[in-house]
Amino acid sequence: MSEEAPNYGKYYIKKQIKMKNTLIYTLTILSIFLFSFTKGGYEAAMESTLKQMHKAETQIDRQAVANKFERIGAAEKNKWLPYYYAAYCYIIMTTVEEDLTKWDSYLDTADGMLEKSTKFKKADRVEILALKGFSTMMRISVDPATRGQEYSMKSASFLQQASLLDDQNPRVNLLMAQMLYGTAQFFGSGTSEACQKFSEAKKIFEKEEAQGRGILPAWGKPQVESMLAKCSSSTK
Predict the structure, then answer these.
(1) On the CB side of 111, how many CA atoms lie within 13 Å of its CA?
(2) With contact defined as beta carbons under 8 Å apart, do 127 and 169 qualify?
(3) Of 78, 95, 162, 198, which shows the fewest CB atoms inside 10 Å?
(4) Largest Cα–Cα distance of the chain, in whole Å?
(5) Architecture of domain 124-236
(6) pLDDT tens-digit profile of 46-91?
(7) Which residue ranges make up each domain of the chain?
């Protein structure tokens, strides 16, 4: 009895079906990914990532959130906010990082994200300038003795530009107050002017909060409240 010849036709059909199923699966995953960033999907993706950002407790968490914002930005092509928030994540990473030698790397990445954000036509220049001021301000703490004058002037310049465009932006007012407070502490002078500025910033935050911001920048109110508590305790 002769050996039965292998059924190559049957094997070929099975292989084609498998390839077809793989292709369908790949296209389905790709369509889900692309749909998540279409109109409506983009806002949902941003809202979800913002919630993760607010809940982040470790540097690994913050890095993951920053990466996610970058992916949203890469998918959207015409949105400034994802790169803005990625920059914000990197700046916040410096505020909780004890190893000062890592700060410049975080801030360099943040500045790179802000440069990407700036290129979009609808980018909010005030918010970006404020965050540039924040990033530059954080570089001072790496070595205040050698960096204080240079970076405080650069930070003040960014914040002044932002203030000229919108002097009622609460984050600009918060950071300008923070700059005044830090300068007063460095020179051992009074902080009353800075504390007054924090008080003004809080009122602007409250107005902004009442209006609602959606996915637009709204950070800063807890920070201003924390600084006002310091101001209160220092006057007792």
Answers:
(1) 16
(2) yes
(3) 78
(4) 106
(5) Alpha Horseshoe (1.25)
(6) 999 999 999 999 999 999 999 999 999 999 989 999 999 999 999 9
(7) 11-123, 124-236
